Amino acid sequence: MNRKELDPDSSPQASFGARLRSSREERGWTQDELAERMGYSSQHVSAIETARKPPTLLLARRADVALASGETFERAYRKVRNSGLLEGFPQFIGHEAEAAEIRLYEVGVIPGLLQTPEYAAIIAESTVKRGAITNDQAQERIALVAERQAALTRTPPPLVFAVLDESCLRRPMGQPDVIKAQLDRLIEFAELPNTVLQVAPFSMGERRPLSLPITVLTLPDRSLVSYAESAQRGHLERDSTYVLPLLTAYHQLQAEAPSQAESVAMINELRKGTP
Fold first, then answer.
1. CA separation for the pair 62, 178 (Å, rounded)
2. How far apart are the C-alpha atoms of 160 and 171, rounded to whole Å?
3. Distance between CA 226 and CA 243 in Å, rounded?
4. Do 170 and 35 share a domain, yes or no?
5. Last residue within a domain, chosen from 83, 100, 128
6. How far apart are CA 28 and CA 55, in angstroms?
7. Please, which residues have CB within 8 angstroms of residue 138's CB and are 6 or more apart in sequence?
8. Residue range 43-68: average pLDDT?
9. 229 backbone dihedrals φ, ψ, rounded to 5°
10. In a shared domain, residues 197 and 234
11. In whole angstroms, what is the distance from residue 54 CA to residue 66 CA?
């Protein structure tokens, strides 16, 4: 029998396959025996072990049950799934899902928590066209946007403060109906009882204390975490020495920006001008 050797460090998918194979062999099972316990064909198990097919969440959970491995394979699956995301971002969204307060400032693009599915799809598809991610990774990114938004409906919901640079609203993105629906989504967001939406207009000029996108989370224990991205990686910061000045700058940004009512009025005016 030909045996394909994998480098577990070459990719999260290869790591998952190598882990599945080694766990199976430790128990002295054949692929047929593991496949029967998991409810899959031996050919499917072989494809997973050799990284010819990516694992699914269901397969990972069945592997954990069959191999009595706790959540080992489910955790490994999430690394596979998040392989198309910037470094640091999977850890950030874990904190975001439990945060008591979320403060975000964005430039140039509507942030994920406020995106419509169509807007999210355009961003993901454009990244595929540039060759930065695969089609499968694009679909995972779109699904992740929906999951992040769904997490905001938990009880009690987090307080969400969003300040958008005016460029977020004026940047063309797909067809006009996509932008119109996105502006509608922003107005709906502003009407929620646990949100505050403000637009930082170009006219703020030098009074703008932040120039780059930033998110600051207040966790349930009241500790602070910030997240920012460069072109190639994300950075999660937990040291209050660095996070507190960002929080101060964010408060200054909110104080200088127009109120939510004024911001919503601006969005409505832009919406009227959208074909």
1. 40
2. 23
3. 6
4. no
5. 83
6. 22
7. 84, 124, 125, 127, 128
8. 92
9. -125, 145
10. yes
11. 19
Q: Is the pLDDT of residue 83 over 90?
A: no
Inside any domain, residue 130: no
What is the token pair recorded at 18? 């190598």
Structure tokens at 171: 């940047």
Cα(first)–Cα(last) distance of the chain, in Å? 63
Type of residue at 249: A
Phi, psi (rounded to 5 degrees) for 204: -65, -30
My answer on whether 188 and 221 are in the same domain is yes
Predicted TM-score (pTM) of the model is 0.73
Question: Helix axis angle, 135-151 relative to 89-96, nearest 10°?
Answer: 20
Answer yes or no: are the C-beta atoms of 191 and 264 closer than 8 Å: no
Kindly state whether residue 5 falls inside one of the protein's structural domains: no
Decide: residue 210, CB within 10 A, 0-12 exposed, 13-18 middle, 19+ buried. middle
What does the buried/exposed string (b/e) look like for 216-253 if buried means 16 or more CB atoms within 10 Å of the residue's CB? Answer: bbbeeeeebbbbbbeeeebebbeeeeebeebbebbeeb
Using DSSP bridges, classify how beta strands 234-237 and 159-165 pair: parallel, antiparallel or unpaired: unpaired
What confidence tens digit (pLDDT) does each residue in 158-186 have? 999 999 999 999 999 999 999 999 999 99
Task: Please check whether residue 28 lies inside any domain of the structure.
Answer: yes
Rg of the Cα atoms in the chain: 22
Which of 66, 83, 100 marks a domain boundary?
83
99 and 60 housed in the same domain: no
For residue 206, the enclosing domain spans 86-114+153-272
Same domain as 240, residue 183: yes
Which of the pair, 156 or 10, is modelled with greater confidence?
Answer: 156
The verdict on 59 and 192 lying in the same domain is no
